[in-house]
Amino acid sequence: MTTSPTSRPLAGKTAVITGSTSGIGLAIAHVLAHAGANVMLNGFGSPDDIRKAVSAIKAEGGGRVAYHPADDSNRDAVRDMIATTERELGAAQILVNNVGVQHVEPLETFPDDQWEKIIALNLSSAFYATKAVIPAIKAQKWGRIINIASVHGLIASPFKSAYVAAKHGLVGLTKVTALELAPFGATCNAICPGYVETPLVAHQIPEQAKARGISEAEVREKVFLEHHAIKEFVTTDQLAALALYLCSDMAATLTGVALPVDCGWIAA
Fold first, then answer.
1. Domains of the chain with bracketed CATH
2. Is this model's pTM higher than 0.85 or not?
3. Which of 2, 3, 64, 145 is surrounded by the fewest CB atoms within 10 Å?
4. Which helix (H) or strand (E) holds 237?
5. What DSSP letter does each residue of 97-130 carry, written as one string?
6. Is position 195 annotated as part of the catalytic site?
7. 182 — alpha (psi -120 to 50), left (phi > 0) or beta?
8. How many helices (H) and strands (E) does the chain have?
9. For strand 143-148 and strand 186-193, is the pairing parallel, antiparallel, or unpaired?
10. Catalytic, out of 128, 163, 195, 245
11. Rg of the chain on CA atoms, in Å
């Protein structure tokens, strides 16, 4: 079957997606590849799992696919990932800052090393990756930067001091980036999901149970979905569809916005 040009709207574009070997990042990688983009995957996982992820993205039939093992908490590794992308796939015009980590514990006992790890991965990595792609975006006068923040970039919850601080910072970084790139045909937006059933959330369930002294079933019902007006988890496919829209020409005048996809959480 012949593919029409309009079915591959991102053909010729190159996307870097951090934390894209599972969860939200992997779902976004699928839709951007299907739209024709070259995709640089990044994240941790076994060699076999990474090979499967690369093969699955290639099967979307879009552009080229590569993988970079950068530890996104290391600024030099992030810079190398962007430079490697340019050598192997072409200069990145699309950047999705998705990598993230979480730790749940009361503020008074929150470990210093966990604070530093969460700030590094959830906020500083986005700064370094954004800084690295800006020259190419300015040169090409087109770009899309999407920061996967969280509803916790807009409001707070107990026991998540580092995560809430990092995600609020990421929303602020989004706004500054949007203003600086506006003259160059580029946008920057943040997607702020409520709870998404990903490996990160699955890992939080026993942590929350321990911190709150309740069962894991109660965590799902009374912690994760308590504030969702729609009593469901957000899906990775829904977030990927929004990311694809933000990369489209139809979203060319949407910038500097933190978009809640939170099942009505912050409407209350």
1. 10-194+234-260 (3.40.50.720), 196-233 (no CATH)
2. yes
3. 2
4. helix 236-247
5. E---------GGG--HHHHHHHHIIIIIHHHHHH
6. no
7. alpha
8. 9, 7
9. parallel
10. 163
11. 18
Dihedral angle of Cα 244, 251, 72, 102, to the nearest 10 degrees: -80
Q: What are phi and psi of 255, to 5 degrees?
A: -155, 150
Specify whether the CB–CB gap between 233 and 197 falls below 8 A: yes
User: Tokens 């369930």 identify what position?
Assistant: 205
Q: Are 17 and 28 in contact (CB under 8 A)?
A: yes
Residue with tokens 């810079």: 79
